[in-house]
Amino acid sequence: MAKTFAGARLRRLREERRLSQVDLARVLELSPSYLNQIEHDARPLTVPVLLRLTEAFGVDASFFAARDTARLTAEVREAVADEVESGAVNASEIAELAERMPGMARTLVDLRARLERLSTAVGRRDDAEMRAPTSHEQVRDFFSRHRNHIPVLDEAAERLAGEIGVRAGETRAALVRRLIERHGVRVQVGEQPEGELHRYDADRDVLRLAPHLRPGQRAFRVATVIAQLEFPDLIEAEVADAVELGDPDTRALARIGLAHYAAAALVLPYRAFHGTAERFGYDLERLADHFGVGFETVAHRCSTLQRPSLPGVPFAFVRVDRAGNMSKRQSATAFHFSRGGGTCPLWNVYEAFASPGRVSTQIAEMPDGQRYFWIARTVSRRRGGWHTPTKTFAVGLGCELRHAERLVYSAGLDLADRSVITPIGSGCRTCERLECPQRAFPPLGKSLAVDPDRSTFVPYPVHP
């Protein structure tokens, strides 16, 4: 069993609670010198000490686990990619920073993002490497920081769902009734202006929905309006607490994102959805049929089941198009999505386009050795007739391999068979796999072995 060293996290937690080492040592029934050694990683956390810590601080044991370090390490590596390439810093220094001083590591990642925004403000708009994050990217990062779970909205939506009688098969009727009886808002289905899926007219108290929306889509949009009308203070409080949402447009987009989150929690109440997901083995297509919503909706909802008292499988969720662009990405795992794009072409999320509508699975291993079990399938949307444009995406849902046996998709698979593992990375520019034949860019911080008398299958051979 691996030893757990979590000195920096313990020290940060103690300081946040304004406890001295002597005070905490007394609570944990340890000597101050022993606690000091734990905080400086001279001693590991033992199981008895860990149990006392979770009881004393009211945190989950996973707070002290090392698995989140992998994602933070990858984020730091990407933030200092130029320094890695020049040899100014190396991989071991980055890993040590993320493990021992996670607060400093996170500050470094945030500082890099701020420098990108500053560079754009002073005119370097043509420099792709210094591009400032868009409002959508900032909101996406906001949800990632919360591990895609907003407790206050989830709980409020679940209470409201119970109050108005939201149940599988009766969801839309219950939501429409709430909108009429509580807010006097009528729902009309009819042709909308070109491209509009819904429009809420607050002056006339009318919610208009496009006729081609499926029942689950109509329910979601009704739920979104209810969330905006009934949870404005909760939504505003979340936005106000997020200092990274700086400009008005980004805050407005965050409010929409939070309303969508609450709508999903209203259509798919936490306990009901969690219990059914566990019973169905997270069979996404079966869950979609049971609750009357789409595949992408249940996949995304599965990634939000992180209530400490009733956790689901911790998932990473992603949606990509054929060109590799990520339009959605959230993670409750240590899996790191490259902030600069250029994800791994060996990932099965991209293979999903070769078999539209069919679920594919993959056991993938990241460069740090962490293994994940991935599910991927395409989803398509269109507005109506034969000549109308269609949107097609691949949706992926991944969890650490140790959780895979809880999923119906792992039935009959040998999860310990190394021969079926696919080595992937977060992106070619920052990936550490030197022998990858699919690499699109030279590895950072390595000297290329340029030899006119020799060729290799690997596109960018490096000196040993």
Q: Care to describe what's here?
A:
With 464 residues, the protein is of the alpha+beta class. The chain has four domains: 7-64, 434 Repressor (Amino-terminal Domain); 69-124; 133-295, Orthogonal Bundle (Arc Repressor Mutant, subunit A), CATH 1.10.10; 313-432, 2-Layer Sandwich (Beta-Lactamase), CATH 3.30.450. The chain has helices at residues 7-16, 21-28, 32-39, 47-57, 69-79, 81-86, 91-100, 102-121, 135-145, 151-164, 171-183, 215-230, 232-241, 248-267, 270-279, 284-291, 295-302, 348-351; strands at residues 186-189, 198-201, 206-209, 315-320, 326-331, 360-365, 371-382, 390-400, 421-423. Strand 7 and strand 8 (390-400) form a beta hairpin. The longest helix is centred in the N-terminal third of the chain and has 20 residues, at 102-121. The two termini are 33 Å apart.
Q: What's the SSE blueprint?
A:
Layout: H1 7-16, H2 21-28, H3 32-39, H4 47-57, H5 69-79, H6 81-86, H7 91-100, H8 102-121, H9 135-145, H10 151-164, H11 171-183, E1 186-189, E2 198-201, E3 206-209, H12 215-230, H13 232-241, H14 248-267, H15 270-279, H16 284-291, H17 295-302, E4 315-320, E5 326-331, H18 348-351, E6 360-365, E7 371-382, E8 390-400, E9 421-423
Parallel strand pairs: 1-3, 6-9
Antiparallel strand pairs: 2-3, 4-5, 4-8, 6-7, 7-8
